[in-house]
């Protein structure tokens, strides 16, 4: 959008530093993501689970002619494990179940919200006035909040990577690109629903005038070019455990950005983040429902996969984030998100506890000895994670917070943990 003269001057928003919003109330289960939480005073701490792949598992630079234009990421030098035929048979047996229980969770396109529903209408005579009003509201958003919002948006914009990853799951791939199987239909329709999230946040950030959109867009290109490594290894059990966990994590993250936006007086942004959070919640229900069925049909295999993914730690989908300048961009972004209460170690443990409850892990019986050991390991893990977080918090008490400049917000600095 090109603007000239007095109108351009009226719509310009000064990129001034704004106060931090750390310590704001956070999302609670059972409450709409745009309401005020009663949780106060908990200070998030940084732990390894919410950052990138453990350094010891990163070996060898990528050997590719594109190496200079992609992020400086690394790959694990090992082949995916062989997937037992029994697991593939379980997934194959779920075709009719998916048709009846999974696809109804998708919303018809005609009844779905679209990004334009929440943004100034460019064909309206009031467009410029509406944009000015949006930019005025955005003045009150703190810099660290913007870092969290941009990070969430970039994560959503890397959707092509997630569809690609989904199609590595053995037994559920969309083999033709337009497969009529329930799994093929789900993958494409889920992608289509998710596509609106990045579009909506991107347009809001573009119109608000508070961020360096070129650096944001460059980060998105780097991220899509780099891909992701969630360590699923083509195993559909691992894949659906990962997606169950990750959809809940994004539900929490978007819900907390909605809550904070309301506190800053940006109620329309609160609605935007809230509507995205509601989509993530519905998708979480879908994936956790798949794993509930898998636990019913193959409790031993499902239990061992749950343990495997928890031992590997859930890698965030944007862990290869890079802007061409900061090689630790994702770690810094995750640190800001934890300090501000958008996504924290506490959330990681709470998601584990939630999935343990949803899948009735503690009450599973008749397991093999190996699966019983996995059951005990998984059930103890949330408490262990919280203890590690508390120890980390105690070690850093009294330390002066580090500050880091982010290219997304015109190289202004915000506090890390």
UniProtKB/TrEMBL annotation:
GO CC term (a single one): chloroplast
InterPro entries: Fatty_acid_desaturase-2 (IPR005067), Ferritin-like_SF (IPR009078), RNR-like (IPR012348)
Record has Iron as a keyword: yes
Gene3D superfamilies (alphabetical): Ribonucleotide Reductase, subunit A
Cell compartments where the protein resides: Plastid, Chloroplast
Keyword Plastid assigned: yes
Keywords: Chloroplast, Fatty acid biosynthesis, Fatty acid metabolism, Iron, Lipid biosynthesis, Lipid metabolism, Metal-binding, Oxidoreductase, Plastid, Transit peptide
Cited Pfam families: FA_desaturase_2
Cofactor note: Binds 2 iron ions per subunit.
BP GO annotations: fatty acid biosynthetic process; fatty acid metabolic process
Cofactor: Fe(2+); Fe cation
GO molecular function, one term: stearoyl-[ACP] desaturase activity
Binding-site list for Fe cation 1: 156, 194, 197, 280
Binding site for Fe cation 2: 194, 247, 280, 283
Similarity remark: Belongs to the fatty acid desaturase type 2 family.
Protein name, per record: Acyl-[acyl-carrier-protein] desaturase
Species name: Physcomitrium patens (Spreading-leaved earth moss)
């Amino acid at each position: 959008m090109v603007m000239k003269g007095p109108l351009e001057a009226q719509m310009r928003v000064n990129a001034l530093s704004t106060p931090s919003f750390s310590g704001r109330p956070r999302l609670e289960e059972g409450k709409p993501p745009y309401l005020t939480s009663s949780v106060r005073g908990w200070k998030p701490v940084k732990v390894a689970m919410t950052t990138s792949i453990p350094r010891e598992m990163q070996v060898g630079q990528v050997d590719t002619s594109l190496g200079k234009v992609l992020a400086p990421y690394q790959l694990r030098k090992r082949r995916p494990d062989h997937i037992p035929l029994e697991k593939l048979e379980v997934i194959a047996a779920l075709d009719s179940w998916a048709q009846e229980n999974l696809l109804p969770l998708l919303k018809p396109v005609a009844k779905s919200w679209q990004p334009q529903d929440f943004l100034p209408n460019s064909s309206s005579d009031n467009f410029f006035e509406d944009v000015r009003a949006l930019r005025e509201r955005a003045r009150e958003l703190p810099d660290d909040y913007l870092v969290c919002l941009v990070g969430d948006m970039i994560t959503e914009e890397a959707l092509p990577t997630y569809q690609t990853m989904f199609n590595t799951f053995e037994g559920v791939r969309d083999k033709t690109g337009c497969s009529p199987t329930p799994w093929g239909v789900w993958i494409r329709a889920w992608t289509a629903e998710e596509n609106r999230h990045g579009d909506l946040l991107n347009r809001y950030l573009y119109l608000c005038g508070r961020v360096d959109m070129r650096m944001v867009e460059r980060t998105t290109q780097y991220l899509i070019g780099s891909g992701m490594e969630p360590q699923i290894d083509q195993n559909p059990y691992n894949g659906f455990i990962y997606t169950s966990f990750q959809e809940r994590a994004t539900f929490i993250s978007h819900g907390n950005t909605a809550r904070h936006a309301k506190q800053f007086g940006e109620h329309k942004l609160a609605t935007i983040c809230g509507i995205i959070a509601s989509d993530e919640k519905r998708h979480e229900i879908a994936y956790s429902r798949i794993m509930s069925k898998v636990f019913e049909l193959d409790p031993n295999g499902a239990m061992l996969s749950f343990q495997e993914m928890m031992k590997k730690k859930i890698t965030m989908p944007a862990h290869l984030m890079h802007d061409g300048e900061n090689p630790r961009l994702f770690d810094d972004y995750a640190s800001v998100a934890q300090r501000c209460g958008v996504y924290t170690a506490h959330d990681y443990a709470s998601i584990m506890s939630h999935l343990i409850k949803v899948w009735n892990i503690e009450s599973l019986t008749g397991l093999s000895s190996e699966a019983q050991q996995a059951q005990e390991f998984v059930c103890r893990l949330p408490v262990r994670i919280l203890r590690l977080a508390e120890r980390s918090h105690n070690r850093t008490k009294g330390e002066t917070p580090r500050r880091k400049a982010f290219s997304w917000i015109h190289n202004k600095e915000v506090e890390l943990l």
